[in-house]
Write a structure and sequence with these properties.
D-Amino Acid Oxidase, Chain A, domain 2, binds 8-demethyl-8-dimethylamino-flavin-adenine-dinucleotide, FAD/NAD(P)-binding domain, 8-stranded mixed β-sheet, 13 helices, alpha+beta, globular, 2 domains, binds P-hydroxybenzoic acid
Amino acid sequence: MQADVVIIGAGPAGLLLGHKLRRAGIDAIIIERQSREHVLGRIRAGVLEQVTVDLVEEIGLGARLKQEGLAHHGFYLADGERLIHIDMQGLTGKSVVVYGQTEITRDLMDAAPERGLEIVFEASEVALHDIETNKPFVTYLKDGVEARVDARFIAGCDGFHGPSRRAMPQSVGVGYERVYPFGWLGILADVAPCSDELIYANHDRGFALASMRSHTRSRYYIQVPTDETIEHWPDDRLWDELAIRLGPEVAERLTRGPAIEKSIAPLRSFVFEPMRHHSLFLAGDAAHIVPPTGAKGLNLASSDVAYLAAALIQWFEDGKSDGIDNYSQTALKRVWKAERFSWSLTSLMHRFPDAGAFGRRMQVAELDYIAESRAAQTAIAENYVGLPL
Ligand code: RFL
Ligand code: PHB
């Protein structure tokens, strides 16, 4: 097979890039390791910055997002019984949209055939070749038969564990990493949310988050030790723990229900530089990971795609290479700022095993400051709604 760009991975990064390129008449094909059902079954992000909303609308696939997405104008930071309101709209004039990553993925997958965007699912042993030349290619196995796609460029949108980043020679890249000593246990349930706005809570027993997918579907998380297993958390125990960590006022409004999904995700900060090596570009989680506290992962995948699509379109349409030459530097600037915000909110809102009494006092002092300072609240709001492209 032959394409202008072969994209590895049908997560948000790969799907958004594929649609953007197809809209400009560029031939793109996506190679995905998992089945469509598996990708759609992964419950992940829920909070979209305007950057992501704009991108989905630009490719003409924003109808359902516009109809079903919930505009959120603020959120809460909770500390024990105190609730600090961050009025995003009032402080920045901007807001975010709550709409599940699975829903975006579904919208983009459903529209792929009519847009001429081919997605090969269940491709195993995906491998990248000749990335240092102008004729790179990707091989994979589909139903036991080896296939090959030749292209001008490869876009590695295959997440943290995918093969693209590893295809770069060790000597050209540097990875910066922080692994946190805890994970998030998430539960999805068809019950009304306990609050109109998200609540990030720092409690003596650890962090908790109250989020949602719709007016009838709630998403909650609690901080758990890295080696925790789901078997230790039957639904009742998890609801009891949420009620404690979210505080008495919120607990009164907490509606319990059976889990539709429950999973544990480790927390990590990671940045790989550079995001391009000759004919290979990295975008999204393939190049960087943020802890989910700032709701930045999917939104960073979107900003990478916005930069990369513009650069590739410029190259294919006008033969200009400054966009692709600057891609890594441009994307990384925004990535590092989101890394800083995600790390900082994670540090503020979680209980670290080795923080000690001093570390805790620093959190309380910072929360006191945020509660009293419009400037501090503005800084948080400005980052949460997303920094400009
Ligand atoms: P994805 O979504 O991981 O997609 C990568 C795709 O590549 C495929 N793949 C391969 N394909 C072919 N060959 C191989 N060898 C392959 N290896 C992997 C995978 O199957 C997959 O389909 O990466 P992408 O597209 O970069 O998107 C990134 C986002 O998924 C991620 O950053 C967010 O989900 C992070 N995140 C959040 N981000 C937000 O912006 N807002 C949020 O509210 C938010 N909440 C979250 C989150 C992530 C979470 N977890 C589970 C880590 C909440 C959680 C709990
Ligand atoms: C979610 O709803 O899954 C969610 C919301 C906010 C976050 C992380 C995850 O910061």
